[in-house]
Design goal:
This protein has 410 residues and is of the alpha/beta class. The chain has 14 helices and 18 strands. The chain has helices spanning 76-89, 94-107, 150-160, 184-194, 210-218, 222-229, 243-250, 266-273, 284-289, 297-302, 322-332, 338-344, 347-352, 383-386; strands at residues 4-7, 10-11, 19-20, 22-27, 30-36, 43-44, 48-52, 54-59, 110-117, 135-142, 169-176, 202-206, 256-260, 278-282, 306-309, 370-374, 393-399, 402-405. The chain has a 6-stranded mixed sheet with strand order 3-2-7-16-17-18, with no helix packed on it. Helix 3 (150-160) runs parallel beside helix 4 (184-194) and helix 7 runs parallel beside helix 8. It is globular. The two termini are 23 Å apart.
Length: 410
């Protein structure tokens, strides 16, 4: 790929100040320079902002064929039953769903995804998007509470890890699903596989609901009934456990994703803030759909903790658009600068997934992964506060220096 230069009303690097009337030069699929002024060969994209491609730090692409979220949302275990039922009734649609999710994601400016994959997936499920689709960090999901499941799950974890640098799968990581669904010995083993390697990240659903805390601490509540109905109840695994203990174990990791963290309380937030390499992934619209109490993301940030944004899946969200996710936050938290929200949806996610050196900001040397935002909201004045104004929208996506969605053909 030869030299290209793109001009825009605004260039928003994330790791530097926004540049009005600036340009981005790229060559060989990577950013060559960021600056002001216009070259003779510049393509002027007009009244747009060029921002880093969005990073969806957490989703489940296997549910991307769903036309609407599963219901009921409450009780939470009722929703889990629907998820299990859907998986059983649709065992052969995984590849189609993943491809659908990849196409939807790239149309919304997403260039990197952290995907939780269940057993049975293959690398071919992600193919077809290698050159013009998002790259994916695939987290192998590990599920099982019974002693008989420990050995096969540990073996699965050992065989999954690695990189696929030539294709759409950027890295392979592990996801012991949640404290209520994976045996503690499996969790310990995945930590031991991840901790010695600086390039690895572990993802775990944690503190998603108050009923999860009740199960861990007392061994009672709706989760106990749910596990008993599923025939997987293990009474010796619950009661007397705490999120604090789990956070201490995860603190040994080079990087970890605390997925959701809806029910984290002050003491846990203060401890989590001492582990900046553990990123809490907040999924705003999913959180709102379940009617959870206010999420502690702002408190965690104020304590010095780390937060990134994800969409979760179409099982709990109407779409996979990171742009819609960030607009949702901008509307509900008008005092938070849009530049901060953009950082949570780009740089923070790339950091959490272990790829900050390669993407997440418009920095010379990084991949030319961009989202192009049309600035058509009449209230737009300043990208620091108006980027996610309701009238603005994603109109283009560049991945590795190639247009996946070309804004010049709209």
């Amino acid at each position: 790929m030869g030299l290209q230069t793109l001009r825009a009303k605004w260039i928003i690097p994330v790791d530097g100040r926004p540049i009005e009337g600036g340009s981005v030069s790229l060559q060989g699929g990577r950013i060559l320079a960021i600056g002001e002024g216009v070259r003779a060969d510049t393509v002027d994209l007009g009244e747009v902002a060029i921002v880093p491609g969005f990073v969806n730090a957490h989703t489940h692409l296997e549910f991307s064929a769903l036309p609407a979220p599963l219901s009921p949302g409450l009780p939470f275990t009722g929703w889990l039953r629907r998820v299990i039922q859907y998986r059983r009734e649709h065992p052969t649609v995984v590849r189609e769903a993943i491809q659908t999710g990849l196409k939807e994601s790239v149309a919304g400016g997403t260039t990197l995804i952290g995907d939780i994959a269940t057993s049975g997936w293959t690398p071919q499920d992600y193919e077809g998007a290698a050159s013009k689709g998002p790259r994916v960090v695939v987290f192998q999901e590990l599920l099982g509470l019974s002693p008989e499941r420990i050995e096969p799950l540990c073996a699965l974890a050992e065989t999954h890890l690695g990189d696929d640098p030539a294709g759409p799968i950027a890295r392979r990581m592990l996801s012991p699903h949640a404290p209520y669904s994976v045996h503690p010995q499996v969790l310990d083993h995945t930590i031991s596989l991840t901790a010695p390697h600086r390039g690895r990240t572990l993802a775990m659903h944690l503190a998603e609901t108050a009923s999860e805390r009740e199960l861990l601490e007392t061994g009672s509540g709706e989760f106990r009934d749910f596990l008993q109905d599923m025939g997987v109840w293990q009474p010796d695994l619950f009661g007397g456990r705490s999120y604090g203990d789990i956070l201490e174990s995860l603190g040994d990791l080079p990087r970890g994703l605390i997925v959701h963290g809806n029910d984290l309380r002050d003491k846990e937030l203060m401890r989590l803030a001492q582990f900046p390499h553990l990123t809490t992934v907040y999924c705003p619209r999913t959180h709102a759909a379940f009617g959870h109490p206010p999420h502690p993301w702002l408190t965690l940030l104020s304590l010095g903790g780390t937060v990134a944004i994800g969409t979760d899946s179409r099982a709990s969200n109407p779409d996979l658009s990171m742009w819609n996710e960030l607009q949702f936050l901008a509307e509900r938290f008008p005092d938070v600068p849009h530049h901060t929200l953009l950082k949570l949806g780009t740089w923070a996610g790339a950091t959490a997934l272990g790829l900050r050196s390669d993407c997440g900001s418009l920095t010379p040397g990084k991949r030319a992964d961009f989202a192009i935002i049309e600035l058509r909201d009449p209230a737009f004045r300043d990208p620091n506060f108006d980027l996610f104004a309701p009238g603005n929208r994603v109109i283009g996506t560049m991945i590795g220096g190639e247009w996946a969605v070309d804004p010049t053909t709209r």
